[in-house]
Specification:
Layout: E1 3-5, E2 11-13, H1 29-52, H2 57-62, H3 65-97, H4 106-118, H5 121-131, H6 136-160, H7 164-172, H8 177-208, H9 220-228, H10 232-260
Antiparallel strand pairs: 1-2
Length: about 260
């Protein structure tokens, strides 16, 4: 994990930032197929186990395809919407805080964004549901508050690690500040920004499960039902589906990171 020292005295940590040697842009065919095959095998085994059991009425109502697909779709919607909002907030703010004129406000700004992670996720979701409403959007707001920091920090670290001589050379060639940012700094910062995004996505998938507590659906519903009804099969199915979804999202994010990595990195 790499770090970037803040000129004001603090230290910014890059969440999940790669520290290995530069890798090939493309995986082998087996590299692309391995994770999907593993996840498909897990789902197949899970399906066969459920099919081999004589389900009670309560289990049958929870472990049918329509119910589980609906819960999975709820979880995906929460993850996608919250992650898009995280990117819309974290990347522009991260760019702003790395500009020389904003150096004095960086520590208090980081402290504000750190509040979301300081509050337990379940407490934040329940609090927003009480003071606002139950359902989709309170969970989205809680997820954004909880995961904006990794992307913000990694954006700042990625931009600050760009060699100053490269920036000076670009400026010497007549490039404007905006052109340097969009054509030099951001492309070189992509690997570290994507590492932060992968962290945020994984957190969002797992934390979105808590949306079941405030009426947002998600795969937390079978988990909660399994606990309340003392039905281990329902609980295990819900937990495995959450794990599979998290691994799938991380796999897709890893492929996106490889494809977006600038040539030569």
């Amino acid at each position: 994990m790499s770090t970037d020292s803040d000129k004001t005295g603090g230290t910014l940590i890059a969440y999940g930032a790669p520290t290995v040697e530069p890798r090939s842009r493309h995986r082998s065919l087996w590299g692309y197929l391995f994770m999907p095959l593993v996840l498909t095998s897990i789902l197949l085994v899970l399906y066969l186990v459920v099919q081999s059991r004589e389900l009670t009425a309560g289990e049958a109502s929870r472990l049918n395809a329509d119910e589980l697909l609906g819960n999975t779709w709820d979880q995906i919607k929460l993850t996608v919407v919250s992650t898009v909002l995280v990117l819309a907030i974290a990347i522009p703010v991260g760019i702003l805080l790395t500009r020389p004129f904003a150096r004095s406000i960086t520590p208090p700004a980081i402290a504000v964004f750190n509040i979301g992670q300081a509050i337990p996720s379940i407490g934040l979701i329940v609090l927003l549901a009480i003071i606002w409403n139950i359902g989709f959007w309170p969970v989205v707001v809680a997820l954004v508050a909880y995961t904006v920091l990794p992307v913000l920090r990694n954006t700042m670290v990625g931009l600050r690690q760009v060699d100053a001589s490269v920036i000076e050379a670009a400026r010497g060639m007549g490039m404007t500040k905006r052109a340097v940012l969009t054509r030099i700094e951001l492309p070189l910062a992509v690997p570290i920004i994507m590492a932060g995004l992968r962290t945020a996505l994984t957190i969002n998938v797992g934390t979105a499960t808590l949306g079941a507590l405030v009426g947002a659906g998600t795969l937390g519903e079978p988990i909660v039902a399994g606990i309340v009804q003392n039905r281990q099969l329902i609980l295990v199915v819900g937990a495995i589906l959450v794990a599979v979804l998290a691994l799938l999202v991380d796999y897709l994010a890893a492929i996106a990171e490889e494809q977006l990595r600038p040539r030569g990195l």
